[in-house]
Amino acid sequence: MHTHTESADVSRHKCLIYDGDPSEQLPVVVPLLTDGLDRNWRCLYLGSPDMVRMVDSALGRTGRDTSQETKRGALILSSDRSHLDGGRFEPRAMIDGLCSMIDGAVKDGFEGLCATGDMRWELGEDKNFDKLLEYEALLERVFRDKPLRGICQYHRATVPAQAIRDALVTHRSTYIGEALNRDNLFYIPPELLLGTQSGADPVAQGEWMCQQIIRVLDAEEIRDKALTALRESEAHQRHLAEQLAEANRDLEQRVADRTADLQAANQQLESFSYSVSHDLRAPLRAIGGFSEVLAADFASALGSEGQKHLDRVQAGVRRMGELIDGMLALSRVVKVEVHRTSVDLSALADEIVREIREAEPGRSAQLVVHRDMAVVGDRALLRAALANLIGNAWKFTSKRAQTRIEIGRRGEDGGQQVFFVRDNGAGFDMQQAEKLFGVYQRLHAQEEFPGTGVGLATVQRIVTRHGGRIWGQGQPNEGATFFFTLPTS
Question: How much is the pTM?
Answer without folding.
Answer: 0.44
